[in-house]
Amino acid sequence: MDSRSVDTVPHTQWRDWIALRAVRGVGNVTYRELLERFATPHAALHAPVAALIDTGVHPTVAQAISTFDQWKAVDVQVEKLLQKSVRLVTRGDKNYPVNLTHLHDPPPFLYVRGTLLPEDRVAIAIVGSRVASSYGRGMAQALAHGLAERGVTVVSGLARGIDGEAHRSTLMAGGRTVAVLGSGVDVIYPSEHRGLAEDITKSGAVVSEFSLGTKPDAMHFPYRNRVISGLTLGTVVVEATEKSGSLITARCALEQNREVFAVPGPASTGRSQGPHRLIKEGAKLVETVDDILSEIAPTLVTRPLIAPTSPPLTLDPDEERLLGVLDGDPIHVDVVIAKSGLSAARVLELLLGLELKGAVTQLPGTHFALTSNGLNQRKKRL
Fold first, then answer.
1. pLDDT tens per residue, range 201-217
2. Where are the beta strands (DSSP E) in the chain?
């Protein structure tokens, strides 16, 4: 089947795509095989049982497809998509990511807020530690900014730490970024990234293969990681322990025959263990964005994006005092209070205000750190 022959699949056909995926036993591989044989979900749903079995479908699954009767539940899903302005981008849509079509088990469709474009095929993933150092955050920012300037779409997972910095820096550079979730696109995790997710939908897309309302269960993230790497030409790992989920994304990239890049760090920190292991195993060492660009040069977009300058934040003296206390490394709120010389109530009020202004992010365990925007504002005041 030429999966890109149809410009856009109308929402009236979404119910067939959702229904076929809802049949017990129809996973991504079986779905792909059914599309190769029958061309559309509608044809597969109405095919004789014998024809389905002839495709290689197990007789029990073939019978379940032929007798599917959960149309009311499917219609409820379609109605929710329309209500929440979420699109179903299917294998029959011209904007279905071409890089995913090369996978053994591509999602038959993605739930999308925002827009996916054909030029997003020139994409690089940047992933890493959720509790990143100032060095790691700075590297993620610099790499994302440099890629965005060259018209490369930056893909990540909207997690705290490296992921968030990659998305934010891409947006600040005026580039396109895609966030892949391990939950429904209406369930933003972590919750403090709701504003960031909304910004991403205006300059890219928030996507998931999980239906609306799906919670961010741990079992979903390996599937999400494979989509992150599958959307791209290569994956960059910036800070990761040896048990980090970022290494799962790197392994997926290798299995998908994509490039793997790793940013080295201080040998004394656990966050460097993951990237260093990848480098030992053959990943390309990355010090600057040019190390990535040289590998993907044949597919680069030739016209770079123009990076807008971010307007300075308007801060009162107490907020500026907190900027001097915070940096890119997570600091516990008690330490912030002690170093600021302000009352606890005043510090909490200021931190909330700075978070709303996009200068500060709250991390697990009541720790706080400056965002890339906050770091830039701090540098301007030094």
1. 999 999 999 999 999 99
2. 87-90, 109-114, 123-128, 153-156, 177-180, 204-208, 234-238, 259-263, 284-285, 331-332, 360-363, 367-370
